[in-house]
Amino acid sequence: MLTDRFLIEFDKALRTLFAPAASLRQRPGSDEPEASFSDHERAHAGALMRINHVGEVCAQALYQGQALTCRDPQVRQALEKAANEETEHLAWIEHRLSELGGRTSLLNPVWYLGALGIGIAAGKLGDPWSLGFLAETERQVEAHLDHHLKELPSQDNRSRAIVEQMRLDEIAHAETAIRLGARQLPASAIKAMRLASQTMTHTAYYL
Predict the structure, then answer these.
(1) Do the beta carbons of residue 34 and residue 160 sit within 8 Å?
(2) The pTM is what?
(3) CA torsion through residues 27, 29, 30, 34, sign
């Protein structure tokens, strides 16, 4: 029933935004000793991990929106599998933020609703375009994580381990989307996605 589906999806949103995330996999870097930081280094690492947390919140919403409008059961299953891995990323980052004395973004509900709308719109264009959007999103996330690996304090091995595993998972998600028939997005769409990502990144660093 439509009401049941709405309640299930609404519950997913509440869990993403307000409940602690859980992970079946061991948290990357959990065996690494905690590093010593200056106040600036700790604040910078916390802000970078907050940005990554926002990215994972948006990923949950994107996958949810795309799955809602997906036509192919195989594609929907792939989206749900990727969403589960993104939930693990949320759990890892939340734990690391706590260790760093940081916090999640104050604008997470805004990021979530915006990404959900984009996911639904992408899904309505058809599965090949939706998968193309997913693949391009993951390519941009991979580049973003590469940048964070350079930006994180060199001694922050715990954060680095988390970001590196996330990077590997995002690469796998992009490859899955391509294998399932993703179309290449127009250059204008790719540019718009990059501009939106830059806006989110700059805002989430502080908020």
Answers:
(1) no
(2) 0.91
(3) negative
**CA-CA-CA-CA dihedral for 177, 18, 162, 192, to nearest 10:** 50
Burial classification of residue 64, based on how many CB atoms lie within 10 Å of its CB (0-12 exposed, 13-18 middle, 19 or more buried): buried
Asked, for residue 77, whether it belongs to a domain, the answer is yes
Q: Report angle CA 71, 76, 81 to the nearest 5 degrees.
A: 175
Neighbours of 67 (CB within 10 A): 22
Q: Residue 17 falls within a domain, yes or no?
A: no
pLDDT in tens, 75-128: 888 888 887 888 899 999 999 999 999 999 999 999 999 989 888 888 888 889
Q: For residue 43, give both structure tokens.
A: 């604040």
- Per-residue model confidence (pLDDT) at position 12: 72
Query: Which helix (H) or strand (E) element contains residue 188?
Result: helix 187-206
Rounded to whole angstroms, the Cα distance separating 90 from 56 reads 6
Q: Which amino acid is at 36?
A: S
Range of the domain at 129: 38-206
- What does the pLDDT look like over 121-142, one tens digit per residue? 888 888 899 899 889 999 999 9
> Could you please report the per-residue DSSP string of 93-130?
HHHHHHHHT----TTHHHHHHHHHHHHHHHHHT-HHHH
Instruction: State how many domains the chain has.
Output: 1
